[in-house]
Amino acid sequence: MAVIVGAYVQAASDTPVGKALGLVVSVPDKYRTLVMDAGSGTCPEVTPNLLAALLQTESEFIPNRTSPAGAQGIAQFMPSTWESSGIDANHDGRRDVWDPEDAIPSAAKYLCDMAKEVKDVPGDRQSNMLAAYNAGSGAVVQYGGVPPFKETQGYVQAITALANQPGAGGGLTAQQVAVAINAADDQLGMPYSWGGGDATGPTTGSCCSPNGSSGESIVGFDCSGLVVYAYAKAGISLPRTAAQQYAATEPVKREEMRPGDLVFFGSTPEGIHHVGIYVGGGHMIEAPRPGTSVRYSPIDSMPDLYAAGRPISHHKKEI
Q1: How far is CA 249 from CA 230, 237, 293, 317, 319, in A?
Q2: Which residues does the annotation mark as catalytic?
Q3: Which runs of consecutive H residues, i.e. helices, occur in the chain?
Q4: Burial (CB count <10 Å: 0-12, 13-18, 19+), residue 111
Q5: 309, 314, 259, 268: which is closest to 5 by C-alpha?
Q6: How do residues 270-280 score in pLDDT, each as one tens digit?
Q7: Rounded distance, CA 234 to CA 134, Å?
Q8: Which residue would you say has higher pLDDT here, 315 or 291?
Q9: What is the fold, at CATH topology level, of the domain defined by 174-311?
Q10: CA-CA-CA-CA torsion sign (42, 140, 20, 229)
Q11: What rounded mean pLDDT belongs to the chain?
């Protein structure tokens, strides 16, 4: 999987607007920014709520905790794992397992490292990643998924349930956002096809685009077709065109955008001509135009970014 790594935009509000997009796990105020930044800016499998649920399960956010087995700090790193995977996230010249400013971003990074190591293992990606954090990636690979260890199975179930508990706003779950982004990522390199793509995957398109390009002989996606497919994989039904998708989302300010939001291009609501899936770090995944294929692009690669929107069940706007 291609992963966009960068400084994702921090949420400007603590109000939960969906399980993946606002914290529904109780996090001490002094750690909220750390959890939001690390949980939104490392890889698609890690979300703020998943990271918060892991920290709650591991240490209850107690930074000086030591387990009977010798795991240390707020993220409960074993010393050998910290030695190989801990980072100096606050750039103070020390990698300190007892400092949440280092340990929380290190936990997110280590989760992402585990996700990469088990990316070819069948089953749910987040569950395999969590199992690898607990039992090691070798065990997940060996057993072809979450290993049959009671501790590991309970660990995965507890964190997943905590991360996906109901929240305010009726938005998407952390798992749904990760599934949608991963589904789009799996289509990297798929050709652009005007009118192509639906909830089942790439299809032949239709004739014709404003510049006369036909998708009738091309199996692939256009921009909104890719969005329909990605969110269908996550169990979310969206309208077919970019303008209709704009009308089915909750407006989001640019400085509040988070992974899973949709970015729309055009000059008016009814004139929206393009849509992409925001993945953070100022990037989106998109099916750009005839002659290209599904790819990651900066959201500023087009000059007419009109708005961002967050898919929210049953929400409509006038266009």
Answers
A1: 15, 12, 25, 8, 12
A2: 223, 274, 286
A3: 29-40, 48-59, 79-85, 100-117, 125-135, 137-143, 150-163, 174-185, 223-233, 242-247
A4: buried
A5: 259
A6: 889 999 999 87
A7: 26
A8: 291
A9: endopeptidase fold (from Nostoc punctiforme) (3.90.1720)
A10: positive
A11: 86
Residues 229, 237: contact at Cβ < 8 Å?
Answer: no
pLDDT tens, residue by residue, 74-124 = 999 999 999 999 999 999 999 999 999 999 999 999 999 999 999 999 999
Instruction: Note whether 262 and 278 are within 8 A (CB).
Output: yes
Question: 60: exposed, middle or buried (C-beta count within 10 Å: 0-12, 13-18, 19+)?
Answer: exposed
For the segment(s) 29-163, the CATH number from 2.160.10.10, 1.20.1270.10, 1.10.260.40, 1.10.530.10 is 1.10.530.10
Least confident segment among 34-48, 71-85, 193-207, 284-298? 34-48
Mean pLDDT comparison of 5-9, 18-22, 150-154, highest-scoring range: 150-154
Segments making up each domain of the chain, as ranges = 29-163, 174-311
> What CA–CA distance (Å, rounded) separates 283 from 4?
7
- SS3 of 249, please? strand
**What is the per-residue pLDDT across 113-138, written as a single tens digit (0 to 9) for each?**
999 999 999 999 999 999 999 999 99
